[in-house]
Amino acid sequence: MLDAAVRVFGERGYRAASMDEIAELAGVSKPLVYLYLNSKEELFTACIRREAAALIGAVRAGVRTGVPADQQLWDGLTAFFTHTAERPDGWAVLHSQARSGGEPFVAEVALMRDEIVAFVTSLIAEAARAAHGDPELAEREVAGLAQALVGAAEALAGWANTDPTVSAREAATTMMNFAWSGLGNLMDGQRWSDR
Predict the structure, then answer these.
(1) How far is CA 84 from its chain centroid?
(2) Is 35 exposed, middle or buried (0-12, 13-18, 19+ CB in 10 A)?
(3) What is the second-level CATH architecture of the domain 49-187?
(4) Distance (Å, rounded) from C-alpha 8 to C-alpha 109?
(5) 115-174 pLDDT, tens digit each
(6) How far apart are CA 142 and CA 154, in angstroms?
(7) How far apart are CA 77 and CA 178, in angstroms?
(8) What is the pLDDT of residue 143?
(9) Strand residue runs (E) in 9-167
(10) Are 89 and 25 within 8 A, CB to CB?
(11) Confidence tier at 86 by pLDDT (50, 70, 90)
């Protein structure tokens, strides 16, 4: 039932999707859908939660420990873009449909994003500690870098999923070229200055 709902919501959006269409695609009756989930809102929320958990799980599982920081970033980005490419309806639910559906859906996606940002923040902080022993990177700066990296990856996944010629590997490579030069310099103690 959730697979059918994700497909319909991903393709049509929350408002345009109908419970009849979801039930038909799932091969169940509409009353059965309402028996398990009381409303369209609850069904959409369940879809968001499932897709968010799957995405977070894929990224966490993709990052190997004990490898250099650039390899961890590559692993995480590859896992992220592979997951979003393999589950385009799920990504559409999270990235565009939930955000345009209003509250409480925006809040659900914000929880997922916060968890991913926290994970990326910890990876950046760990990499800085490994590179410098006692990094000068302020906690706020590390959190800002994580926010920027996650936001850029989300935007790039949105683009990659609308162009079937872009592979997950190509999207990850593009993101590495964008992000690692800056992060790599930061890990080496180099910062940009407007002076």
Answers:
(1) 8
(2) exposed
(3) Orthogonal Bundle (1.10)
(4) 18
(5) 999 999 888 888 777 776 655 666 778 888 899 999 999 999 999 999 999 999 999 988
(6) 18
(7) 12
(8) 87
(9) none
(10) no
(11) very high
